[in-house]
Amino acid sequence: VHVPLNPQGMFMVYGSINGRAVNFHVDTGATSVALSSALADQIGLDYRKGQQEGVATASDVVKAWFVNLDEVRVGEITQRNVRAGVIEGNLPVYPLLGMTFLGQLEITKRQSLLELRQR
Fold first, then answer.
1. Residue 56: predicted pLDDT
2. Cα(90)–Cα(102) distance, rounded to whole angstroms?
3. Concatenated DSSP letters for 87-117?
4. Strands 105-110 and 96-97
């Protein structure tokens, strides 16, 4: 999967969580896939059954629930049972495609393009 750098300097890619379309922010600095509780509600994810923890974001420590997503897909790459944090509120605006997904891939950066490959 080829992920170009957008004009705002972020690597964004379309994909899905449990079959529901999302626009991911590729974030190799994020420990796990992360999404807002607002998005989780919108896609029908019952996250409140997950394990609740405090997590450190760039600006604060916030409440989050950790769950396993049935399926995360980006292009032709599909992973099942992906650990994710659901952060209470509206942030992050775009779900973060973090290392619980990316750590299973080969990632190559070439100038303004990321290449993601299944190992």
1. 82
2. 23
3. ESSS-SSS-EE-HHHHTTEEEEEETTEEEEE
4. unpaired
